[in-house]
């Protein structure tokens, strides 16, 4: 009986990670460059495909960041609105746990990429381009105008100050 219980501990512990607030690591990577002083946070916010933030963008505060190692791991929202999203790091100068572009808070530069969410997928659902997205999350290169990867996890996603 003890052997069975001990064998169950590891899978149950791993399965409970997202339930306990530990991210699933849907997106993970590092933040390079000279880190500014202040409280560093991560945000996942809505944007248009051209790279400009939509006027009323949903923003998800992501507190999982190891400043010593400059590494992060985040879980993507499970059922967001269809659209494009940007992951960024910023200095939370006013302490409200939100990136405020109007307050000129220091943030990482654009990666030239967007996370596209499509609940049903588009077109043939082949994942070849924006007109044929697979259902779920897609990493899309705005610079190269191509799908980089369909489906999480998205690893080694580098942000730069």
What's the quick description here?
The chain has 161 residues and is mostly beta strands. It is built from one helix and ten strands.
General description of the model:
The chain is mainly beta and 161 residues long. The chain has one domain (23-160). Helices cover 9% and strands 32% of the residues. It contains one helix and ten strands. It has one helix spanning 2-15; strands spanning 27-32, 40-47, 59-62, 65-66, 71-74, 83-91, 113-118, 136-141, 146-150, 159-160. The strands form two sheets. A six-stranded antiparallel β-sheet has the order 3-2-6-7-8-9, with no helix packed on it. Strand 4 and strand 5 form a beta hairpin. Mean pLDDT is 80; it is low at 2-21.
**Care to count the β-strands?**
10
The number of helices is: 1
Overall 3D geometry? elongated
Runs in which pLDDT lies below 50 for 5 or more consecutive residues are 2-21
Class from helix and strand fractions: mainly beta
On the 0-100 scale, what is the average pLDDT?
Answer: 80
Order of helix and strand elements from N to C terminus:
HEEEEEEEEEE
Helix percentage range: under 10%
Strand order of the largest sheet: 3-2-6-7-8-9
Approximately what portion of the residues adopt beta-strand conformation?
Answer: 25-35%
User: Radius of gyration from the CA trace?
Assistant: 17 Å
**Terminal Cα span:** 53 Å
Largest sheet: 6 strands, antiparallel
Number of domains: 1
Protein name: Lipoprotein
Organism: Deinococcus deserti (strain DSM 17065 / CIP 109153 / LMG 22923 / VCD115)
Signal peptide: 1-21
Keywords: Signal
């Amino acid at each position: 009986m003890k052997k069975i219980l001990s064998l169950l501990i590891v899978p149950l512990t791993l399965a409970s990670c997202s339930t306990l607030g530990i991210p699933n690591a849907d997106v993970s990577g590092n933040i390079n460059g000279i880190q500014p002083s202040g409280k560093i946070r991560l945000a996942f916010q809505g944007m248009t495909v051209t790279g400009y933030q939509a006027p009323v963008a949903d923003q998800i505060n992501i507190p999982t960041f190891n400043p010593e190692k400059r590494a992060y791991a985040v879980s993507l929202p499970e059922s967001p609105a269809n659209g494009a999203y940007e992951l960024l790091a910023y200095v939370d100068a006013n302490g409200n746990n939100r990136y405020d572009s109007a307050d000129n808070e220091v943030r990482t530069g654009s990666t030239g990429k967007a996370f596209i969410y499509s609940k049903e997928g588009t077109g043939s659902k082949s994942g070849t381009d924006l007109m044929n997205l697979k259902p779920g999350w897609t990493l899309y290169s705005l610079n190269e105008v191509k799908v980089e990867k369909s489906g999480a996890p998205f690893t080694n996603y580098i942000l730069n100050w």
